[in-house]
Amino acid sequence: SSGINAEYGVANSHEILQLSREFVMVNAEDDEAPAENAEFSIDGGYIPRIIFLDSDGNIRPEYTNVARGEKYKYFYPSVDEITRSMNNVLQGVAIKTEL
Questions:
Q1: What element of type H or E holds 60?
Q2: pTM, two decimal places
Q3: Which of 55, 54, 53, 51 is nearest to 65 (CA)?
Q4: What's the rounded Cα separation, in Å, for the pair 7 and 89?
């Protein structure tokens, strides 16, 4: 949702800008979420949320906001929490490519 940009400072974050060079990022508004694909309803249908996919388009449910616990684990209320997960994803990809 576009609300995440204004509310959490994502658009003004230099760190997210730097990390985003390693990702393909898509911003889907609430009515643009692929409702016919139940995979995107992991952990409910709340917004905003961030879901990471691999290069083949498969959802990677293990990459969550570790600060959230078990409820709303794809919700990121701060830039720091977003960048932590982005770094975790990059580390996971680096480990996989080293194998």
A1: none
A2: 0.80
A3: 51
A4: 24
pLDDT tens digits along 7-42: 557 888 999 999 999 999 888 777 776 666 777 778
Using alpha carbons, select from 89, 90, 85 the residue that is nearest to residue 66. 85
Tell me the residue type at 6. Answer: A
Most distant CA atoms of the chain, gap in Å: 40
Instruction: Give bridge partners of residue 59 from the DSSP assignment.
Output: 53
Give the amino acid at 95.
I
Q: What number of other Cβ atoms are within 10 A of residue 92's Cβ?
A: 15
Residue 49 buriedness (CB in 10 A; 0-12 / 13-18 / 19+): buried
